[in-house]
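User: Please predict the structure of the protein below. I'd like the answer in structure-token form so I can feed it into my own downstream comparison script.

Assistant: Understood. Taking the following sequence of 571 residues as input:
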Amino acid sequence: MNFLRSRRDLWATLLPTATAAVLLLLAPRLPWIAPSAQPSPLLLLVLIAVGVAASVHRPLKGETLGLGAMVIPPALYLSGGGPAAALAAACLVLTQLALRLSRTSTAQKHERRGMLRVLEDAGRAALATLGGAAAWAAVRFLWALPAALATGAFVYLLVWIGLEIADRKIRRPDQPLRLQTLLPPFGLDLFGWILGGAVAVAGLAGGWGLAGVLLVALALLVLEAARSAWILNRADNRIHDLERLGLAGERMLKKEEELVQVVERIRDESAKVLAYHWYHFEALAPGWELRSWCSTPEGRLEEGVPEPGNWAPVLPGFHRRAAWQILERQLRAQGRVVARVRFWCDPRRLDPKSVDLLDLLIPQASLSVQRCFAGLEAQEDPLTGALLRRALEPKLNQAYYRVGERGGAMSVVLCDIDHFKKINDTYGHAVGDRALVAVSAVLKGSRRDGDLCCRYGGEEFLLLVDGIAGEDALGMADRLRRSIEELPFEVDGKRVNITMSAGVACFPDLYIKSAAELILFADEALYAAKRKGRNRCLLDIGQGKYLDVHGNVVDSGEPVAETPEPPRIFA
């Protein structure tokens, strides 16, 4: 399918270009388009300059001469159909080159097909001018000048519209033609013909010096209109870009619970203003662990560092391989670097305007990351990195209501470091802090997605395990206990044993009226484990009974009050 489409594009380009070239070569032998006189070089330069200046203004879009068609009637009077057609083709080529040089999009500069389309448009301009010149020559000897002008303009527009229809049918035979988008640009060509006819009449009546002055004045007016339109369009684009950036900033500043979601949001909003292939985000906030994410061209966000290679992908057509252009920006908050983003871009398709938009987006991305870190600081313990107790309650309630409505199970594991006060008194609080960090690392490292690790008290930690029943949670707690017991914790070259006791409670195995009651049951199981000798885990199964990891049922070890005798009414 692509091969057939490329063949159709090739035919659509070659037919008007080759036909126009052949007719221009045969122009001296064809009486209806043969040169009638040799114009002066100065006048020819004036006509080319006026045609290019007038064609630059394109309020109705399109790829025609537009108001530049005003140079065709004077050229027909001065030199005939062949030179006028060559002049029209030259004006269109120079206009297209001027427009492409003024554009900021580098994609169209480096595509080979773009120049072929310029030659195709020049061929159509020459063919349309030759058609108008033939009609002009035929009517001029029969009727008055206005009739020749009207007939030439009609045939010029008819030929160009026919070529445009043929081009669209060759390139896209399955798509219907829409006259509402096809005809409006040719209104400027008709107006240009009318202006050119008035200039030609003025030249015949008052001399071609006066006609040249009129052409230059008209060209200056058109240039001023083009400049005003360009300024207005630039202002509109700027307003549109600022609106987009404002919306992007609002979306990025929405409250998020995870840093990963902020990384994804920055990636998505950056893709709307910048064309890139690879994306890399590094979290560099002081006091936080170094984390890195990358996004592949397929859009997958993965934790790690990207590996894009040294070269950008191959573009269709004839192009040199290009090395990546890496755009790196730092995200700052209060004067310090909190993150770094990198974008791997193809320099052949990189738009300088998009780089400016990215620079405007970076402060909002910095604010989004700053707010995310601030939220994490408000929820996380700065020493161990575990959640704070105040951040646990809403998450615990959410899990409780979810299990109550959808079924399943949730478990709470309350852990306590054995003889932690003795560690502090013997080795100092700095060593005690190290012990807390080491135990916290083990507990956090065992989490699955959705599990929570909270620093519940001084040396107490709480694990919220969603989707796991009581006995499975008890086994997990015992594995953590063994891992902590095997920690290579040393002080001054001497190993210090750290042990942990844990109490486990599960819903709906236990009847509870609120999520907070589940913590109370886990706390009772923890104190039962302490009373049984520490360095063990127990699961609360209700009614003062506990289950150990070996499946043995033990009681709380506390005396149970005797059942009172019923009152005796009669002695």
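That's the full token string. The first strand starts at residue 278 and ends at 283.
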